[in-house]
Amino acid sequence: MKLDTADLMACLCADKSLSKARLAKMVYLADWYACLETGEQLTDLEWYYDHYGPYLSKIFDIAKSDARFETFRAGRADIIRLKDNSGVIKLDQTQTSIVDRVRGASSAKQFREFLKLIYGTYPIRTVDQYSRLNLPVLAKEFNSLPR
User: Fold this and answer.
1) Does the reported pTM lie above 0.90?
2) Distance in angstroms (rounded) separating the CA atoms of residues 29 and 117
């Protein structure tokens, strides 16, 4: 079930240029959705709730060091783009469903709307800022809540 983080990023960036902030939050959302569905993250990233929500500078570092990506500055934003779609790997059915859900949740939203979605997730609503986000444990808690 685990995906290499760069492979997940490539799937999320296919046919798009994304800011590093949006891509980092999309990777977080993919890990969160995977935990809700399977009990495990797609990646092995250790998420942290910092000043700007779930964010890891490692996402940009991975993009800069992986030849499949190009990074550049546009105004005040760092942008990540897949050079071509040949770097996108084949996903299994569950992974495809999660990536499609994340892309759908992100693509139709302006960044502020997308941030509302991120800040509305159970981990961000329940964990103290500047804390580690143990997504599998939090998904188990969330899934056990009465509906």
Assistant:
1) yes
2) 9
